[in-house]
Amino acid sequence: MSTAPIATATAADSGFIAALHLREFRRCWISSVLSGNGQWTLVVARGWLMDNLTHSAAAVGLVTFASWIPYLFATPVGGVFADRFDRRRLAAAMQGVSLLASVWLALLVFANVVKPWEVVALALLAGVGRSIETPAVTSLIPNLVPSEALLNAISLNSMANFGSRLIGPAAALGLLAAGSIGGVLLMTAVFYAAAIVLMLSVRNPGHELHARAGVWRETRETWSYISRTPLLPIVFALMSLHCGLTMLTDALWPEFTRSVLHAQASTFDLLIISFGAGTLVGTFALGGLRSDVARGSVLAVTGVLSGLTMALLALVSTVFFAFLVAALIGAAQGIYMTLGTNLVQEVVPDRLRGRVTSAYIMTTGSAMSFGILAAGALADTFSIHAVLLIPPLLFVAFVLFVSGVRPGVRGMYRTGSILQPRPQPALAAAES
Fold first, then answer.
1. How confident is the model at residue 82 (pLDDT cuts 50, 70, 90)?
2. Which domain holds residue 363?
3. How far apart are CA 51 and CA 111, in angstroms?
4. Could you tell me if residue 377 is inside a domain?
5. Which residues contact 393 (CB under 8 A, 6 or more apart)?
6. Has residue 56 got a pLDDT over 50?
7. For the chain, how many structural domains are there in total?
8. CATH, residue 154
9. Would you say residue 279 lies in a domain?
10. What is this structure's pTM?
11. Which of 23, 300, 326, 395 is 20–30 Å from 237 (CA)?
12. pLDDT by residue (tens digit) across 99-138?
């Protein structure tokens, strides 16, 4: 099966939206925007619903944990499926699972019979859909764009995912302010339905097939490749710890809004919108990078900033500065995670792309799920300020430590790539 993109970018396509000149990627991207809007409006509705039902940060952390933990057990299977089957149809089917979870929860809310355990269970179902959809879409992108447009395409896709924290919650703001959580849930269903239609309209050129050897054997092959590839395990560790120690806000926003800012649902939604605005601007700006050296420098800087901006939130007590810091957190986290995804995608052969992508998403997603679960429990037990301050600073310390003891990591920052250039022999030695 052919792996060449259907269309190729031209010199005229340079710029921040180069990959959007390609029709099939554009359709895939719009589908991702719609699906991302569905995901984040669902996060907003579930978080505020659970907070209303329980008034507990730990309970909000639990429902968020339930939505992320499928990345640990469902994503590896999704990666195998993404290498075996049509990635476009797989993504659309999983968007359908999330649609079902949204409609089901909406019906329970409208009937006024919803229980906390049902919110958790349906978050788990939606998480299964998202955890399989994500590697399918991520591994589909390199089949739709030429290699020179890959970073731009991944940046745009990250902008779709992270930036959906701005668009989706903004669309839901009026409904949430009016107390209509059920209306927000129906809105997520509309987003997912439109995403499915767009994804199914994508013409997929196919991808390199591999011999089927069973899920267990294929999983072992995947992790063997990861362990043998220089610096790839370090990238996995950096991105996973980043998710587990800094990307904790989904569990903390409701408690932060109520106990620190002394505000209501609309402020909670606006915090998520501010975060989304930061990711939108950051990942959009990243799409214009053409220099590998600049890419490496940005990776190093945003790794540190991602931790420092989260810690800064612990010092904030006013709404205005909370919005500003939320935007800075979103920008740093969005850029850092996008560059991590690009480092992985540019080195992986297409026959392993779905499985390696799923392994990457599994490690980062499961780290985030456990981090969020712990953050919610610790915020109830100790202080939300301590949870905002200590874990992000631990991540910054880890980044600085690894950069100091591993020359290869410093080389990655210098070159912007896992693939380090091999030293060239001296001309005299070559001539002899």
1. confident
2. 19-205+228-419
3. 19
4. yes
5. 307, 308, 311
6. yes
7. 1
8. 1.20.1250.20
9. yes
10. 0.73
11. 326
12. 999 999 999 999 999 999 999 999 999 999 998 998 889 8
